[in-house]
Amino acid sequence: xxxxxxxxxxxxxxxxxxxxxxxxxxxxxxxxxxxxxxxxxxxxxxxxxxxxxxxxxxxxxxxxxxxxxxxxxxxxxxxxxxxxxxxxxxxxxxxxxxxxxxxxxxxxxxxxxxxxxxxxxxxxxxxxxxxxxxxxxxxxxx
Length: 142
Description:
The structure is a single chain. The protein is an alpha+beta fold and 142 residues long. Helix content is 41%, strand content 14%.
């Protein structure tokens, strides 16, 4: 009887401890669920100068946009959500990749080894050619 009571007390204590640890996980140690999103904003490859250059090129086109940037080339919402920094392009987005026009390419910084600038549904994206990981994205406001 005494062992049984001790066993029940031990199980109740163990249960309390595990519940407390589960509730405390991820809280109070300077971690925020939005912390990773803040880090993404600070780690862009395209500088403000690069973005200004892309906007200037876009406005110089005067409505004669290449494939990949024309209004009809905009992504549907489902694919738009899948295009994100440090994400891997799914096959549906890979089909929509267009090479960056030479005039725009001249305004951009040289891509890191293994990467290239592509147009994807109204965006300029810096994508790894073999793994399809996105390093940075710039969206043209239309």
